[in-house]
Design brief:
Blueprint: H1 2-23, E1 35-41, E2 45-47, E3 60-63, E4 67-74, E5 83-85, E6 110-115, E7 120-126, E8 129-139, H2 154-179
Parallel strand pairs: 1-4, 3-8
Antiparallel strand pairs: 1-2, 4-6, 5-7, 7-8
Length: 190
């Protein structure tokens, strides 16, 4: 009889442990690998196609830690580069060199990678024409994290927690009946 009570206590503790894990914070999202295609002309600006050039250029959005691949193209046979101007002074500073691409020009497309390492909304430019710019936002978390309230899987998480609670109650009721009331002698052997 004492063995059943210890088993019951162990099972209840394990169930509450699993329940606590279900309410724990979700794991951090793994870094992504977004690809962005950009075209640039000193007269036309930046664009996601060679016919959508504008100044300011398109708004870009990535997540902290992403390994971003840029495919950079020129459209005017002039030298260009791409960099994030963290301090918005129109020049590539020491802390911006790791987010500054090599020089590119048409007709050769430049494939270049950088890691998004600073959260905020910043200006991107070409150091050869700093008045042509656009905004890039580096978010701390992805725009739609399905493990946070309001995400697609919230209903599934709540349903899972309810199933666990019902299972614990059913299991407890089964063992409670099987153990009998405290102080009641065991039934006679047959």
């Amino acid at each position: 009889m004492m063995g059943l009570r210890k088993t019951f206590a162990l099972v209840v503790c394990m169930a509450f442990g699993l329940l606590a894990i279900g309410f724990a914070a979700p794991p951090a999202a793994a870094a992504g690998s977004p690809s962005i295609h950009l075209w640039m002309s000193r007269a036309g600006g930046w664009g996601i196609t060679n016919t959508s050039l504008q100044n300011p250029g398109p708004n870009l959005a990535v997540t902290l830690g992403d390994n971003v691949t840029l495919y950079l193209n020129g459209t005017d046979n002039r030298n260009h580069n791409w960099f994030i101007d963290f301090n918005n002074n129109s020049a590539v500073n020491a802390n911006e060199t790791n987010v500054s691409s090599p020089t590119f020009r048409n007709p050769v497309e430049l494939k270049w990678n950088f890691t998004a390492y600073k959260v905020g909304t910043f200006v991107y430019r070409s150091r050869f024409e700093p008045t042509v710019w656009g905004n890039i936002t580096i978010s701390a978390t992805p725009p739609s994290n399905p493990l946070l309230p309001g995400g697609e899987n919230t209903v599934l998480i709540v349903a899972g927690v309810i199933v666990i609670i019902v299972a614990v109650i059913a299991f407890a009721a089964f063992f409670w009946r099987r153990m009998g009331k405290p102080g009641t002698p065991p039934p006679p052997p047959q």
